[in-house]
Amino acid sequence: MALDTERGQAVLSAYDRRAGTTGGLYLLNLHTLDSPAVAVTPLATGLRPAGIDLRAEPDGSRSLLAISRHEDGSATVERYRLDGATLTHQGTITSPLLCRANDVAFLDGERFLFTSSHGGCGWSAVIEDNVFGGRHGFVGLVENNDARALIGGIGFANGLFPEPSHDRLTVAATREDALLVYRLSDPQAPPRRIAVPGGPDNLTMAPDGRLLAALHPSPFRLALHRYGWPGGAAAPTRVAALGLAGTEILLDEDGQRFPAATVALSWNGRLVIGSVTAPGLLVCGEAASGATGSSALAGPPATR
What we know:
6-blade_b-propeller_TolB-like, four-stranded antiparallel beta sheet, about 300 residues, Serum_paraoxonase/arylesterase, mainly beta, 2 helices
């Protein structure tokens, strides 16, 4: 999910991973979260989108990046322009380095960063990291439509959050249970490591300046759930806020109601949470600890 605070909306990236069917990009009107029918508008269909990022342009329009995964195992990054609820395709970035692309983030109007969960495209690269504990995930840079690796040696590089004004780049190392904080001006320097209580997934910024991270407390249970294997009916959901004062757990559930959270947005005193497999979103009161104050599970976007 990519938040547009000024317009009170968010862009959602979704598809049914278990069924292998396509999904797309959707525009969520956050002002309708309390309405009987939540307003969600399809922007682009027929995609298997992964990480996305949204950027406000000087002319008031929005630029959108979306990782698009393909049946042949490759992936591309699609550039769009968003005007109101109209999405216009503006180009495709292709590179062998994108085959395991996971998340994407603008650096400026032209350059962007991406994470690759593994170091190669085939199943051997997945087995090397997931089974034998290798750390071959990396952060890449796309400049002038050319992709290159920027930072390597990451245990499943996942969400990323660049802050150029602070010379800072935070990367979620899912299999290391850590956030890695690099200097954008010197990305090869050793990062500052922040241990977190679970494998971090996507990262967003809360209004108070803290990073919000969806965490996976059990990689084993996540795998069972993700692939629908026996014992995988649910996987724990955990959301944390990280700042100078430390880590605060905002939501911690066993996953029976809402399994395997992957992203959380903070908007108007609420947490809006997405999942690996759930058919909707979970909306919680941000001040709540644990599950208290949480809403019921949202249904399909067209209804609730």
